[in-house]
């Protein structure tokens, strides 16, 4: 089969690799229908994240179950399934608490020798704990929205949950990438009364507004803090979603939170070196940082995606065939593509 | 009157100063009955915190109202009152939300030209918003416990609340000073099922056990993390109270939290320079840091203190007259006194 393999920063190749097969009795093999490229894929591609030559790429996919191991009970060949970006056994202490990213038997696609999602097929460990079957008769035109449940929408949702977004909360979202935009969508879904999107790109701000943003702030750094304070009567916002992962984004997030407010940070913090703890102390700020347990949220978000009531599809602004995954990375890195959809096969 | 005045780090003098009088119509003057010394008083005394020569010291006191300004409505001369360590107007946006430490008209005793609590009397701004009258007939033998409501017990309680302590939570408390011990007491009061006190001092560990600690861990640093993990089946605890304010204490606090856990930090973070944000991300940790809005908690904690059901008095292990405040600081700095009670006058 074809799969995307990373050789070096900037050197990604879609090439022939052995077809995946069931190895463990709890495995399944999934033929990929749709996959996509994540902002976090670019960290390794740019050489910022630790990099293992030869690793597979991609951690978001939706597809059709082709084979199941003898101990797989809840899945059968032919089912359409969506995979969260990490596999998990569904039974350990952390999985039972809904924190599948800490699963004692878990991992993230592409780590070590595991398969990646940017491929024609994937061997899925702990298939029962990991994969979520879609309802019979799910319309093909909703599959792109369902693919967003692999990572980007649950991650925006996780930022909102960690920031304490609830009915009538005032919210600001730092970062106008696909995750930040999904954070806007998730905040609207959770009933926020005001959602300030921080964006200086007109096309992304337009998606933010479509997703429920009530205000757009284009400033950055101290000017962004001043502007948000200005439009909130000097008070700041209850909840801040930090969806970038840099020192500047974190400083902005803390600076625009109201005293007693809460920041939920999902930007992979490769470029966060400092936190202003003195400010947190004097203003009673909370910070929760975390990789989203996407598996915990898929069932909750799926009905709203299937109905189109909260539809993340607008984050996918360009589609590519599998062979053009390297171009998709280049386009996302150049910011000419917000989030690349990769069409692999038909369901 | 006599008041304690700080001249330089290590140079504290109890000397004659002008008697306080009502200046603003919302002021009261309180004759001090009991005051005490806080661990945070030592930061300035040791020269670690910013220091203003000539400032008054002490921010915890209980006393009798002597005079009230013409706009004070809820207090009358002769009432016994306890003061939280910060004054607040009780009416601003933040006070209405229970975050009186962010009051737009607030301040902390001893800041600027304000009076300090280690004195014979104190001018209290925003008296109605600040002072809490005690019930008629409060027995004299309960006043030491009520004095603890100025700061140390609400601060321990705030750490527990920020760490999310609730019924059946597993808890660890980093720091065996008076605040940490009150954090143990507050966690017991909130229904924690297990409370691990981190202490290497036998006398303090004994108070921790009396306050409800189920385990005592004497190790520090990485050994403390290993020990807590060992006694929690490798999982760590749900809630960690960080009651020190150093890099090591913060690292220990994050290290012993279970994945998905929460740290509440009340140690004044003069010596916190770094936070391991990558660990927080991979393990989904939360951190809330804050100065306790003591005023918000006094009414809640007062009945349990008056009944003796949750009695913080054991944190006061030595009593001093006002004239010996400098010795009290020296003894606390040398750790021969845990928390110094200062007896100023009779109620």
TrEMBL record, chains A, B:
Q: Does the keyword Zinc apply?
A: yes
Q: Which UniProt keywords apply?
A: Metal-binding, Zinc
This protein is called: IMP dehydrogenase
Please report the organism this UniProt entry assigns to the protein.
Answer: Longimycelium tulufanense
For activity, the cofactor(s) needed are: Zn(2+)
SUPFAM superfamilies named in the record: GroES-like, NAD(P)-binding Rossmann-fold domains
Question: Where do the Alcohol dehydrogenase-like N-terminal domain residues begin and end?
Answer: 25-135
One GO MF term attached to the UniProt entry: metal ion binding
Q: Which Pfam family, any one of them, does this sequence belong to? A: ADH_N
Please report the stretch or stretches of sequence annotated as the Alcohol dehydrogenase-like C-terminal domain. 178-288
């Amino acid at each position: 089969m074809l799969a995307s393999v990373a050789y070096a920063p900037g050197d990604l190749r879609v090439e022939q690799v052995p077809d995946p097969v069931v190895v463990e009795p709890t495995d399944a093999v999934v033929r990929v229908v749709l996959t996509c490229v994540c902002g976090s894929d670019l960290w390794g591609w740019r050489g910022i994240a630790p990099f293992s030559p030869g690793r597979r790429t991609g951690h978001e996919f939706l597809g059709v179950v082709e084979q199941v191991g003898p101990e797989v009970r809840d899945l059968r060949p032919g089912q359409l399934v969506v995979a969260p970006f990490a596999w998990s056994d569904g039974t350990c202490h952390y999985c039972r608490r809904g924190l599948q990213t800490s699963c004692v038997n878990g991992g993230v696609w592409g780590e070590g020798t595991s398969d990646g999602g940017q491929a024609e097929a994937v061997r899925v460990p702990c298939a029962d704990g990991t994969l979520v079957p879609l309802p019979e008769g799910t319309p093909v035109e909703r599959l792109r929205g369902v693919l967003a449940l692999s990572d980007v929408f649950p991650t925006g949702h996780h930022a909102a949950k960690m920031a304490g977004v609830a009915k009538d909360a005032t919210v600001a979202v730092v970062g106008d990438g696909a995750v930040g935009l999904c954070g806007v969508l998730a905040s609207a879904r959770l009933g926020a009364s005001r959602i300030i999107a921080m964006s200086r790109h007109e096309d992304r701000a337009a998606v933010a507004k479509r997703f429920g943003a009530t205000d757009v702030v284009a400033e950055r750094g101290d000017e962004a803090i001043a502007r948000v304070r200005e439009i909130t009567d000097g008070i700041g916002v209850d909840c801040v979603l930090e969806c970038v992962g840099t020192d500047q984004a974190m400083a902005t997030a803390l600076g625009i939170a109201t005293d007693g407010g809460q920041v939920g940070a999902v930007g992979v913090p490769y470029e966060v070196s400092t936190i202003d703890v003195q400010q947190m102390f004097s203003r009673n700020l909370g910070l929760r940082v975390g990789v989203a347990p996407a598996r915990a949220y898929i069932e909750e978000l799926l009905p709203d995606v299937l109905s189109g009531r909260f539809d993340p599809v607008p984050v996918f602004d360009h589609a590519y065939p599998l062979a053009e995954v390297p171009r998709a990375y280049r386009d996302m890195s150049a910011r000419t593509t917000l989030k690349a959809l990769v069409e692999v096969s038909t369901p």
